[in-house]
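Now for one protein, fold included:
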Amino acid sequence: MRRSNYFALWIISLTIILHSCYDDLGNYDYMELNDISLSGIDSLYVVKQFDTLSITPFISQKIEADESKLEYFWHMYPENRINYSDTLSFDRDMEKIIGSPPGLYMAAFEVTDSETGVFYKHEFFIKVISNYSDGLMILSNIDELANVTFINTAGDLFHDLYFKVNGSYAGRNPTALGHGHFHDRSDNGVIMILCNDEVGGVVTEPIGFMHIGEYSDLFWIPPSESKPMAYYSFGSFYDDAVIDNGQLYFRTWFSMPPVRYQAPQTQETKLYPAIFKGGWSGLVVYDNANERFMAKGMNYANVVPEKTGAFNPADVGMQMIYGGKGYKGLGYGVFYDDNLSEYYILSYTLSTSSVTPGQKTLLSKGSGIDQATAFAVYTQSPLLYFAVDNILYYWDQSKREIIAGYTFDESLSIDYLEFDVYNSNLLYVGTSDSNSVSKKQGNLHYLSVSFDGATILTKTYPNVGGKIVDVMDKRPL
């Protein structure tokens, strides 16, 4: 019985096989494919961001010699992130300005035979390196738009940097630059371009300057009307703060990420747009609404304790026109007494939670300080610089007199002064040229300053942007 079952199964299988052979009436005339081989492409190309990458491949066809039926496609994408592919070209020979942020990218050249639809692909790598790791960022105002220029350590100048990377401006009415962290101190850092508009500015990558967020993203509850005025960081490991619309916002990096700015730590204040470090970790500001110094406490900024001396820091009774930290860590400020219509220079010691008064010096009516357009304080000797029109002056605290330090061409007006953070003898001077026919009327000058106040012009970068509002020496955090 079992043998007959096996025999029946064999008969059924044979029938199925023969039937299948009988029904197979397919066409077995094959068309030879026009195989294409791609060569002449290196395995790795290293290109600076915003430089042009040119590749001319060698294409070999098995049948056709004419390339008119071929279609081309070049693209690149971050490693293992093909969904973020960036089209480079549809031409046979690729020539493209590479604007992608620095990093290693996969790239491919694809050739498709339009008659058969078969495509051939050659993969390779593109490494984008940056001209912008270290150098000087210059924020300027051109027709109320924020313009960013960068000068790298090799002295190469790059105009319209943010616009070239992102295709738009960072905002309107630029006010300041910042270099800190976004929401976690373990990140690679971010650049903040602050603007006095409804958005408040933008946050970018630190090297590629690609837009990654808005100013409002730095807050738990953003200001109802963003008007950022100043940024201050204690360093990569410590806290930072901003002054927005006269109020102080603070955050500490010892909190669990994401770290954002808390509610304002000052109420009904009109803070001067500068933040001063007092002692090891103190933070001191000046309130022009109530004409007094304040120091950050645990939850908000407190009025500093009253002290006797040349003035009472808890009740100065004057408007701060300029404030900075200078010689021997002393604070220096230019103040205006609107009751007496008098200008004074005050010196003071900044500590963690208090201000100790130093000297109070009345400036003469003809000092020119009332016409000053920019200020900077020197850390190597007791000198305070200020600019009137095209002339740079300095106040010598030891001599109690104002001295003309450097005179620029009459067509130039001084808009900006700041000493370099890393080279205390280097003074950056921003000027506008009334004779320039370009919208980029702003120039950046390097002045070498000596202990006695003497200044030497060492370098000038003409037409770096519009009116310069901030300069920042950018280095890795």
